[in-house]
């Protein structure tokens, strides 16, 4: 028969064993953490960049002030690197992943420059949402948006124009153009219609919705290809009401 005194002694021994087990585990864990912090094995030797196209890997590393040598767990200030990179208008988002033992993967999501506005003797580059990315004195290889009245220009914010509805329509055309293997060197807004220039003297004329529809079904691309193969680089490709059978008309008059 087990007495109360013996039962209390067993309980005391179990508590003592649990205490020492916990203490040993804590010391081992603390030692492991200290080892990871101090061990040169976990010093960052490389920054790998993914998702970038406008900036090079080296430019991203310089912009983020990515220093080699700190411990991969506690020595790299990931929040500060992200903060620095997001200051640039072309960077939409940044994320990190530790590639143990000594590399950090930086994944950036860049804004896609799609068009520009003429502004005095310069050009204002925008992304597919209308955000103002940069100013340049050199004509960029982007679609020029013409006929819009700029009302507010702030770097890193959407450019505001008086013709806001028409700008959204132009951005829709640009998106569809990019998705369907077509390029307009200029899109000109007017109250009656939209003019999308394939070449300086070869223009697609129609409503934004009709132009988008005919880009999606490749009719515009096929017509342009046919004309260029015939050496025709002057005239208007007119898109009429898409409810009628004869939807695209070509005339040598601009």
Summarize the structure.
With about 250 residues, the chain is α/β, with parallel strands linked by helices. About 35% of the residues lie in helices and about 30% in strands. Strands 6-5-4-7-10-11-12-13-14 form a nine-stranded mixed sheet, covered by helices on one side. A three-stranded mixed sheet has the order 1-3-2, covered by helices on one side.
Report how far the terminal alpha carbons are from each other. 111 Å
What is the overall pLDDT average?
89
Please give the radius of gyration in angstroms: 31 Å
Structural class, by secondary structure, is alpha/beta
Main sheet record: 9 strands, mixed
Helix percent reads 25-40%
Layout of strands and helices, then pairs:
Layout: H1 4-38, E1 46-50, H2 57-63, H3 78-86, E2 91-99, E3 103-110, E4 113-119, E5 122-127, E6 132-136, E7 143-146, E8 150-152, E9 160-161, H4 164-179, E10 186-189, E11 194-199, E12 202-206, H5 208-216, H6 219-229, E13 235-239, E14 248-251
Parallel strand pairs: 1-3, 4-7, 7-10, 12-13
Antiparallel strand pairs: 2-3, 4-5, 5-6, 8-9, 10-11, 11-12, 13-14
Description:
The chain has 254 residues and is α/β, with parallel strands linked by helices. 34% of the residues lie in helices and 29% in strands. It has helices spanning 4-38, 57-63, 78-86, 164-179, 208-216, 219-229; strands spanning 46-50, 91-99, 103-110, 113-119, 122-127, 132-136, 143-146, 150-152, 160-161, 186-189, 194-199, 202-206, 235-239, 248-251. Strands 6-5-4-7-10-11-12-13-14 form a nine-stranded mixed sheet, with helices on one face. The protein has a three-stranded mixed sheet with strand order 1-3-2, covered by helices on one side. Strands 8-9 form a two-stranded antiparallel sheet. Helix 4 packs parallel to helix 5 (208-216). The longest helix has 35 residues, at 4-38. It is elongated, with a radius of gyration of 31 Å. The mean pLDDT is 89.
